[in-house]
């Protein structure tokens, strides 16, 4: 019984389709090619400047309103920018947004699941 490949791990934690868990194949190469088209150069990134500037302004307003929630504001700004660029979704400007919260929760769960040695199967592969 050898070590599992990354796609097996992704399947176990529910992230089978995540780019970091995919096997190196034609699908992964296509995804990487498409990502490179969007963020592969400074010229391609300039089209997202307006979105980043708008969200930076929302971030500052939210920070002035409740400075004690700095890390929540940072997570919201990052999530909002990513959702806007990738899906065209416009999050709630003030207060919480369901999809941004869901994305933050997914990233938290992913980071918890990816900690080496976190699960018994990491040390004892026969637990599979």
Short description:
Helices cover 62% and strands 0% of the residues. It is an all-alpha fold and 128 residues long.
Pairing-aware structural class of the strands and helices? mainly alpha
Query: How many domains in all?
Result: 2
What's the rounded overall pLDDT mean? 82
Please give the largest β-sheet.
none
Strand content: under 5%
What low-confidence regions span 5 or more consecutive residues with pLDDT below 50? none
Topology:
Blueprint lengths: L5 H7 L13 H14 L2 H4 L3 H17 L4 H18 L10 H16 L6 H4 L5
Helix pairs in contact: 4-5, 5-6
Question: What this model shows, in words?
Answer:
By secondary structure, the chain is mainly α. It has two domains: 1-40, no CATH class; 48-118. It has seven helices and no strands. It has helices spanning 6-12, 26-39, 42-45, 49-65, 70-87, 98-113, 120-123. Helix 4 (49-65) runs antiparallel to helix 5. The radius of gyration is 18 Å and the shape is flat. The N and C termini lie close together (10 Å). The mean pLDDT is 82.
Protein traits:
single chain; 128 residues; mainly alpha; 62% helix; flat
